[in-house]
Amino acid sequence: MGRNTTEMDAKLARAAASNYWTEAEAQAVLEACEASGLSVAEFARRHGLGAQRLRWWKKRRAEETGPSLSFVPVRVAATPSREAREAPAGPASMEVVLDRGRRIRVEPGFDAGEVARLVRALEEAC
Predict the structure, then answer these.
(1) pLDDT tens digits, residue range 65-115?
(2) CB of 69 within 8 A of CB of 124?
(3) How large is the average pLDDT for residues 24-32?
(4) Per-residue pLDDT for 126 more than 60?
(5) CA dist list (Å): 10 to 3, 18, 35, 78
(6) Looking at beta carbons, which pairs linking 32-40 to residues 24 or more positions away fall under 8 Å?
(7) 3-state percent helix, strand, coil for the chain, nearest multiple of 5
(8) Can you say whether the dihedral through the CA atoms of 22, 43, 11, 31 is positive or negative?
(9) Cβ partners under 8 Å of residue 23, min gap 6
(10) What is the mean pLDDT of the chain?
(11) How far apart are CA 97 and CA 70, in angstroms?
């Protein structure tokens, strides 16, 4: 067992025995929970913690940080050339029209997760 594992086990034992968590203690517990890959309920059960307490801290942290926005690369296409307009039709692309008239053109083979993140980011930005 490594030193970091022993230290984390000690922190989790103190957290389980305590009626009050500092911000730093809560952050350490939440990070350990996330790193474990376990559900909140399973992590809490294994370490003698209250699952509801973990959920409360997790919700509080999410409210403090707000929505996680990130920049997504966007390529602006120029007006297609005459050759491109007259080329045989391939697989169809689609255009997504958002609030306030924003448009996103989606080409075949797109990553649905990336498009969803882009739409959320654009909608939350304004």
Answers:
(1) 666 666 777 666 677 777 767 766 666 677 777 767 778 888 887 788 888
(2) yes
(3) 88
(4) no
(5) 11, 12, 16, 60
(6) 32/8
(7) 60, 5, 35
(8) negative
(9) none
(10) 79
(11) 20
Dist CA 26 CA 121 (whole Å): 29
- Residue 54: how many CB atoms within 10 A of its CB? 21
Short-list 20, 73, 22, 29, CA closest to 51: 29
- Tokens representing 40 are 């909140």
> For residue 109, what are the contacts with CB-CB under 8 A and spacing of at least 6?
none
The first and second tokens of residue 21, run together, are 């968590």
Query: Can you read off the two tokens belonging to residue 93?
Result: 């692309």
Look at residues 85, 89, 30, 40 and name the one whose alpha carbon lies nearest to residue 62.
Answer: 30
Q: State both tokens at 46.
A: 């294994």
Quick check: 25 and 18 in contact, CB under 8 A? yes
